[in-house]
Amino acid sequence: MSYPKVELHCHMDGAIPDRLFVKYCRQDGLCKPETSDEEWIKAHVMSETMSLSECMGLFALLTGLLQNEERLEEVSFELLKDMYESGSKLVELRFSPQSHANEHMSMEDAVKAVLRGREKALQVYPDMVCGFLLCMMNLGQDLGTIENNTRTILLAKKYKGHGVVGIDLAGDELATPIENYEAQFELAQRLGVNYTIHAGESGPASNVAFAIRQNGGRIGHGIHSIEDEKVVDELVRKAVLLEVSVTSNYFSRCVDSLDAHPIRKLWDKGVMININTDDPGLMGISLKHEYDVIKEHFGFNEKDFILSNLYSARASFCPGKEKIIAQLTQALHEA
Ligand SMILES: [Zn+2]
Questions:
Q1: Could you say which of 3.20.20.140, 3.90.420.10, 3.30.450.80, 3.40.50.80 is the CATH number of the domain covering 5-334?
Q2: Is residue 110 a contact partner of residue 69, using CB atoms and an 8 Å limit?
Q3: Running along the chain, 335 residues long, what does each successive block of 10 average in pLDDT?
Q4: 0.85 exceeded by pTM
Q5: 220 CA to middle of ligand 1, Å?
């Protein structure tokens, strides 16, 4: 059966389509002419044997490739196109404007560039529903980062209604205590800016408890909630959606093995789950791959998948999602 897929947790830098990744690396002279495209791509995808610092190095390389407006616009357009063509009809992409600001491009220029790419995609696929989340970064509590994170919230407010649908807190969850960001979520709330929070990915269940208290309605990963039954109960009681990425959690060693991933346990306890790739380019995976893994390893059936997409559509921050909700409701009745 075909039903629209809803993907809410995908980092644009980690999702650069292979063809563009190779093109940019060649343009920047990073890849030797004698190296084939396939060899180059293979050497730059994550695997379960890679160390965390190697993985961070790979992500930094990807961000480094997207330091001008032309490429940001191109990746935004091409990525949305690929996602639509592969069945994702309601999509939220995320990126961190401060990681792309440089002497030639401000944070706002970076936001405007990705929004131009989104406009182009909507011209080709007018029935696609898509928006951008702007990521604040957990890099530490230096003044520059605090300022940039506040700027990120203000940009999300300014471009709300023009393709930006909210903010996120990304970066290293363990860099500084997540509680330090409370004032910024309060500001976002005051300004009417939606937010999701990376919590309980590499960090403990108490981070998920913090994120639940911020009332954003969604949490990035949140899988370590499984370590505290009370936190899981709160997720269910407050109807919080977890944006889960199984392969990413495995590759980044947030779970001991693929089969140790708590997705099935959380689902069976009644937690609403959204299925995502997180960083498909970096991981060398597709959304279909994630569905296959979840079906094979965790026994999700068609009805589970439709229900998961319905929960996700309801929790999406994108305006215009009603038709997708209606299609999923219909698909659920027919399943
Ligand atoms: Zn993420």
A1: 3.20.20.140
A2: yes
A3: 92 97 96 94 83 79 97 98 98 98 97 98 98 93 86 98 97 89 96 97 96 96 98 98 96 92 98 97 95 98 98 98 98 94
A4: yes
A5: 6
